[in-house]
Design a protein that fits this description.
The chain is of the alpha+beta class and about 160 residues long. Helices cover about 25% and strands about 40% of the residues. This is Nuclear transport factor 2 family protein.
Length: about 160
Amino acid sequence: MTIDDLLAREAIRDTLAKYNVSGDRLKVDDYAACFTEDGVIQSERAPGDFIFRYEGRETIRAWQNRWLSREPGQDTVHKASFVRHHLGTCKIDLTGPNTAKVRTYWAAWTDIGPDHCGVYIDDFRKVDGEWLIALRRVRKDWVSPQGLFESAISNTDG
């Protein structure tokens, strides 16, 4: 492994952390900046209420803005007072000087404790010196029967 490989892996880990912190804190611009201009985020092997696909940084930004733009009196996006996504095992395979395949386990915690968990399956691409998500497939493997976040995706569908 070279120094460039180590730097690439650390930059990818930084983007992974920025994505989760920005998403949890509803920092929409920072969240969208984690993706390439043509980036895609989509669900994988998902039940009907968790199916989504957003293509392009601006479309992803608009989707995230819907988390913020609730009409007065309209239901909240989810029932949790906080959401914290925690990253676990992360396998980074550099597939070229500007590309990588990444698989990361994640777990989301809310007011009830563990709420839901799964895996991010990512294609990363280096653009202008930054490692960004070109394709993110979000697989949800488990949801607590008391889950507070279950309605979140369907409540932000455009």
